[in-house]
Structures are given as structure tokens and as C-alpha cells.
């Protein structure tokens, strides 16, 4: 069944996939991204993928890139996810959750009769994304990451489930915090394109520290 398919190598990902351009949205391998789908052409996209391999590529619009056949230019690197949960809202919308599989590089945007956008993609440069690497987790400075998170929460007068965080694997923690972070499109793209889990964690700590340094003493904010 399409809904139970597993994706273990780049060869398991179709050459052409539907993409959902959304500024500030970040999907990473094995992380979850909740989305509210309401624009008609992307409702049609969800209708279509539910009956197929249930794959959607998340990618950010890039103001510096050339216009595509169906809209603004796109960053060349995105992440493909599997639709693992969906709920119809009764008013023509979907609430869905995508679970990340692998990053991809866009080779070409396709001209199509579909109302949504389609891209030819290549996951081979990101073959390592298809499997968790416990060894890579050992390189991450988890203490620095948790200290940065604690400082962010304290500065914004927020609480979190520290027991759940302590139990989470390091990759799960790094990627989930990257997905939920309230940072802008450039920062989100940099986190996406980080060469390693350690590089992503170090970048997340650095971005958080820079943001905290710019905040007034009584700054307010939230993790999305």
C-alpha cells in the first residue's frame, strides 16, 4: 500500500515530486512539520498525494532566484516528506503532518497542467539523510544546545517539557528545535543546508545566541 511505503535510498524517491513553497517552513529528515493547507491548489495537491506515494517536497521561495513556470523562484535545496497524518477540517482545508525523509536538490521545475508545482529532484547528494547515524550524534555539543535553549526560554518567559527533552535522541532534538525555531527564511535555509548534524547544532546555538544578544531585557517571543 502506498501509505505504508518506506523510503530507504534515493532510488525510492520519484524523480518528479509535488513541491510546496512556503517561506520560513523547515522540514528535516525524521522531523515532523505540521501544516494547515487552505490554498485551493495545495488542497488539490494533498488530494492527489493521498492516493499515491504521499510525498511532498518542502522548499522555500528565493527572491533572488529566477521566476519559475508557476510562481516565484525557489531555493535549490528542499526536503521531501511523507504525509503521515491528515485531517479534513470540514471547510475545505487539511491539517497535515509531514515526516521528513531526505533533502533534495532541484534539478528543474516542470511545466504541468496541475494547479500545484512539480519539480525534478535529486536526493543522491543527501544519501546519508535516509538513515539515522548514532555516531554523528556523538559529535554534537548537547550541553551547549540545551544551554542555548534554556537561555531562550528564560528570556522569553516560556516553559518546556525538560523531561521529554532529556529523553529525546540528539538528532531528534537538533532537528525538532530547528523546525520549531522562530528564525527567518535565511536562517532556516542555512539550517537545512548544514553539512552535518554537528554543523546544524552549532549553527542553531550561534543563531540563538545572536538573537538573544539583540533582545531587550524584557523581550517577548515564542517557539513556533
Description of the molecule:
The protein has a five-stranded mixed beta barrel. It has seven helices and six strands. It is 33% helix and 23% strand. It is an alpha+beta fold. It has helices spanning 40-50, 134-137, 142-155, 162-167, 170-180, 185-193, 197-214, and strands spanning 16-21, 32-37, 55-59, 77-88, 94-110, 117-122. A hairpin with a 6-residue loop joins strand 5 (94-110) and strand 6. Residues 218-224 have low confidence and may be disordered.
Topology:
Layout: E1 16-21, E2 32-37, H1 40-50, E3 55-59, E4 77-88, E5 94-110, E6 117-122, H2 134-137, H3 142-155, H4 162-167, H5 170-180, H6 185-193, H7 197-214
Parallel strand pairs: 1-3
Antiparallel strand pairs: 1-6, 2-5, 3-4, 4-5, 5-6
Proportion of helical residues = 25-40%
Number of strands: 6
User: How much is the average pLDDT?
Assistant: 91
Structural class: alpha+beta
Concise summary:
The chain has 224 residues and is α+β, with helices and mostly antiparallel strands.
For this entry, give a set of tags.
224 residues; alpha+beta; 5-stranded mixed beta barrel; 7 helices; 6 strands; disordered C terminus
